[in-house]
Amino acid sequence: MTPLVVGQVLSPEYSLGLVALSFLISFFGSLVALICAGRMVGADGKPNLAIVACAAVALGGIGIWSMHFIGMLAYRLPFGISYNMPLTIVSLVAAILISGIALYLAGGRRKFSRSGWLAGSLLAGLGVCVMHYMGMFAMNMRATMSFDFSMVALSVVIAITAAAAALWLAFNLRKLSHQVAAAAVMGVAVCTMHYVGMNAASMICTAAAPLDALALGGSYMGLTVFGTAGAVLIFIYWVVTGSSLDAAPAASTQQRVRPS
């Protein structure tokens, strides 16, 4: 292996297996979020906050954040990379909260709102960018980052556009076949934003990585995140579809006993 020189611009590589996993988890997270979105408002016209929370976790925590983190793990440099745990946790919480607020603004108030959609799209797009670059700054490694701000701006545009498409699709598609196609489009859009954002940074070799007692890492983290995210999605799907099936008989019973 060629020895590293301080000040050297490093050439990253990607683990194609983890890149594929990052797309798959984004696709499945987006699909479950679309299914949740169709059930966010109950028959009484009021938002079901539990399902809003499930949609936020599916979209923000799985479709966006887990994709982002697996994509970060796919990024390979000639030395080990670990991740600052507090920043990583904050980025996860931020992704879920922002997605929940954006979903509620767009369609959690009885019907799809164009003004809410626009506000939610801007909020979600900027929030995704903050989460993404926060995750990059969580990297603990023997390198510093130099950014190409034209690429950063492009990633912001992609993020806002992807958020707008995701929110529109979430509240305007009901057929499962359409939702599957939409989830694939959303997965591609989220991955494109992530990898454009990664390409915005040049990594410059330093003498040593900074000390970080709260850093986490490991060669199996990508599979661990994928497996955990998959289990969470299965649980969310079970909760949401189960609650919908329970609500239907209850509604029909109320209609039968209502006095004429």
Automatic annotation (TrEMBL):
Positions of transmembrane segments: 14-37, 49-75, 87-105, 117-139, 151-173, 180-198, 218-240
GO cellular component: membrane
Keywords, alphabetical: Kinase, Membrane, Transferase, Transmembrane, Transmembrane helix
Molecular functions per Gene Ontology: kinase activity
Residue stretches in coiled coil: none
Keyword Signal: no
Domain of life where this protein originates: Bacteria
Pfam families hit by this protein: MHYT
MHYT domain span: 14-204
Protein name: Histidine kinase
